[in-house]
Amino acid sequence: MKLTAPSLFASLAAGLAGVTAGCGQPIDIKHADAMSAERTEPLAEARLSLKWKFVTSDRSVEITPQEFAAPAVVQDTLYVGSAHGEFYALRAATGQVRWHKILGSVASAPLVLGPLLYVGTNDGFLVALDSNTGEEKWRYQGRGPIEQTPVATGDLVVFSNEADQVIALDSRTGKFKWQYKTETPEEYTLRGHAGVRVDGDLLYTGFSNGNLVALRKDSGTLAWSTSLKADAERFMDVDATPIVLGQVLYASSSSGGVYALDKTTGLVRWRLPFYDIKTPSSSGNVGGLATDGKAVFVSVADLGTYAIDLQGNILWRVGARGGGEPGAPVVVDDMLVYSLAEDGLFLAERRTGKTLEYFDPGDGISAQPTITGDGRLFVVSNRGILYSFDLD
User: Can you say how many angstroms the Cα of residue 353 is from the centroid of all Cα atoms in its chain?
Assistant: First the structure.
C-alpha cells in the first residue's frame, strides 16, 4: 500500500491578501521566507504576472484536494489532465479550449511526440491520442498508476508505474515490446514512483524496494542494479527520477538520501544522507531532483530544499517544515522553482536559495510547474485551477 510520508500535511492558518496581476483578475500572491515555509513580510521581488486561469476540474467540495498533473506545452497548445478525469487541449496564449475529453484520473504531464500524445492514468492505462483532435489511437493497461511522464527512445515509448513495472511499447501501434518487473515490498511504501531517464543505450529508474537499475533500452534486460536503501528495512523507496551529468548518475531514496553513481557500472561515488532530528532513522521523502549542470537541487519532505555541489557538499538549504509534500524542482535561468503541497509555489534565487516570490492560490500546489523557453509558467493548483503566468 502506498502512503504519503508522515507529517507532510500540517496546515497553516495565515491568510493571503488579494492583489491584481496580469490580466486584472484577482489572485492571491504573497512573498514568503522559505526557511520556515511561513508567510512573513513581503519581499522586494515580483516575478509572476498572471495572464489567465482555467478550471480543469471542480475540487471545491473536497476538504483536502490534491492535483499532481503538470501541463505539456508544444508551440501554442497546452495539454493537461486532472485527478477527476478531465483532459484538455488549450491554446497556451489564451486558455481557449481546442478539444476536451474524459480520459481518467491523471497525475503527470503527458508526452507529445509528433502527431501523437501519450497520457498515463491512475487506472494504469497508457493512452495514445491524436494531438490535434484528441481521437484515441490505442491504449495499454499495466498493473499500477502511472504518475510520471513516459519517455520516447527510437520507436519505443517507455513508462514506469507504482507496481514497480517498466514497460516498453511500440510508439506507433502500442504493441508490447518488453517489461522489467521487480519485487514490491510487502510493507507500506511511500506514494509515488520514479520516472525513466534515457541516456544513450541505457534507461535508468528506481523502485520501492530501494533499488536503482540500468536497463538496456532495446530489450529491457538488466545492465546493473544498486541498492540505495542504506540500512533501512522499510520506506526505502526510490521515487525521484534520476538525472545524468556526464559519466555520473544522481539519484535518491527516502532512506538513503542523495547518491552519485558511475552511470556505466552503478558503483557509488558518494552518498549524502538527510536526517531529521525527530526521526533520525529516515532521510525523508524526496520530491524530485534537478540540475543546472553545476549543482544538484533536491526537495525533501519536512527538511527543505537543498543545493548540493557535484562532490556531495551542501551549498545551501531552505527549510519547509509544515509546508507539505514537495514536488520536483525546476531550474530556469537564475531561479529554482519548486512547490509545496500546503504552502504553494516558491521562486528562489538559484545561487543562494533566497525566496524571490511566493504564490499560493489558497490550497497549496502539489504539481510540478511547467516553464517554457519563452518565459511562461503554467501550474495547476490543488483546487484544479490551471494558472498561466509570464515569468519576469
Answer: 19
Matching residue, cell 509558467: 377
Confidence of residue 215 (pLDDT cuts 50, 70, 90): very high
What pLDDT score does 133 carry? 97
Compute CA distances 282 → 73, 184, 232, 234, 351, whole Å. 37, 19, 8, 10, 28
May I ask the CATH class of domain 1-65+285-392?
A: mainly beta
Q: Are strands 2-3 and 189-190 parallel, antiparallel or unpaired?
A: parallel
Sign for the pseudo-dihedral over CA of 322, 324, 325, 331: negative
Task: Return the pLDDT at 274.
Answer: 83
- Length of the chain measured in residues: 392
Domain ranges (residues) in the chain: 1-65+285-392
- Residue 277's pLDDT is what? 53
Give the other-Cβ count within 10 Å of 148's Cβ. 24
Give me the mean pLDDT over the 25-43 stretch.
42
Grid-cell match 510520508, residue found: 5
User: If 0-12 CB within 10 Å is exposed, 13-18 middle and 19+ buried, where does residue 392 land?
Assistant: exposed
C-alpha cell at 320: 519547509
- Among 284, 381, 374, 383, CA closest to 92: 374
Yes or no: say if 128 and 221 are a contact pair by the CB < 8 Å rule.
no
* Grid-cell match 519536512, residue found: 302
CA neighbor of 107 nearest in space, from 229, 235, 2, 214: 2
